[in-house]
Amino acid sequence: MRRARWASVLLWILFAAGPAAAAHIHLATISGTINPASADYLRQAIATSERDGASALLVELDTPGGLLASTKDVIQAMLNAGIPVIVYVAPPGAWAGSAGTFITLAANVAAMAPGTSIGAAHPVGIGPGGGEGEKGKERDFAAEKAENFTAAFIESIAKERKRNVDWAVKAVRQSVAIPQDEALKIGVIDLVAANREELLQRVDGRETLVKGKPWKIAVAGAEVQPLEMSLLTRILDVLATPDIAVLLILAGALGLYVEFTTPGVVVPGVVGALCLLLGFFSLQILPFSWLGLLLIVGGVTLIVAEVFLASYGLLFLLGVACFLIGGARLFDRPDLSDVNVSFWSVLVPAVAAIAGFGAIIVFGVVRSLRSASRAGVGELVGMIGKAASPLEPEGTVFVRGEYWSARADAAVPAGGKVEVTAVEGLRLRVRLAPPEPQ
């Protein structure tokens, strides 16, 4: 009886301790730009990990950069997290560019996979950097202001996490970028791991500070539980991509252009309006330049004007040029964002495709405008028909598949061939058709 009692107590203790002993970590995956949607996803991942008692949050990162405001939100959540945040730049070939550099440096443990890179955190636009006059000075001042702010921001992060401060500042001011082995050598990251399993093994037992207090990371044998983006967040994440936003605006402009030049088709107009709505919704998420947007609108106007003005293609070419320049400048906001439209891989092919399609439409419309009329009563003059009844001198004739009241200059027997010489209201003037040449 005593042994049975002790066995029951032991089983109860094991049962009660079982759930607590089953350690787990959460996994968040970022593959794309840092924008309000992905930033909200990471902040929610941190909050969920704290609430669920996870041993740590693992963030697998692959990003070219993003919005500075969204990056600030992520950094603030990471530095104030109640659990360790591990950032792993992966898979091989991934990079922690620009905003990704800030996020990696802010991690409790920063790791990279082989074949990855980090850096190039300078806030730049693709437009001209300065110029003569007040406009050039204003642009230089804005760029300098953005650079100073981001340099101070990354310096404070590096100091907080005791990483290489000098390199962090150079990543902003000189846009330097380095591979994973050099990042490990100079103290930018903590370790290089070939895969997730190796990473967790090497992270286990490390000591870090969480909210200023010592914390020993315990992730050995922990279950990895992925945290998925909600459907709405995934949609917003896609719409907050500059390339997608520009493609939506260009597709919308093309749809409306087709509808205006060929009224009644309906489908292109509806699709174009929907694309424009989604594109303008993207502009509510992304910081954009009004100059770029006005250039795109001007491009649409010039291409439409080509249909009605004989410019021999000049207006059309100017419209295409406005598309290219406007698309390139649409997100040229170095003070707010470090991402832009992919000029050669996205913008140029998209504009070329739209220009080709638009050229076909312009050619067809101009050709139809210059051709002779093929509809209406005016085209009846000169047509050959048949007298449906005797014309003495009035009667009925059959022309172009229709019966018409007619008046002949001379009597024409029923069945005789007649030629239309004039249209007088709803009555035709006809004459006996000349015999066909043998």
Kindly list the characteristics that best describe this protein.
438 residues; alpha/beta; 2-enoyl-CoA Hydratase, Chain A, domain 1; OB fold (Dihydrolipoamide Acetyltransferase, E2P); 3 domains; six-stranded parallel sheet; five-stranded mixed β-barrel; elongated
Overview of this protein structure:
The chain is an alpha/beta fold and 438 residues long. It folds into three domains: 14-229, 2-enoyl-CoA Hydratase, Chain A, domain 1 (Alpha-Beta Complex), CATH 3.90.226; 241-370, no CATH class; 377-432, Nucleic acid-binding proteins (OB fold (Dihydrolipoamide Acetyltransferase, E2P), Beta Barrel), CATH 2.40.50. The chain has helices spanning 2-21, 36-52, 68-79, 99-105, 133-160, 165-173, 180-185, 196-203, 231-239, 242-261, 267-285, 290-308, 314-329, 343-370, and strands at 24-31, 57-62, 85-89, 95-97, 109-112, 117-119, 177-179, 191-192, 207-210, 213-216, 223-226, 384-387, 394-399, 402-408, 417-424, 427-432. The strands form four sheets. The chain has a six-stranded parallel β-sheet with strand order 8-5-3-2-1-11, with helices on both faces. The protein is elongated. It starts with a helix and ends in a 6-residue tail after the last strand. The model is unreliable at 11-21 and 125-136 (pLDDT under 50).
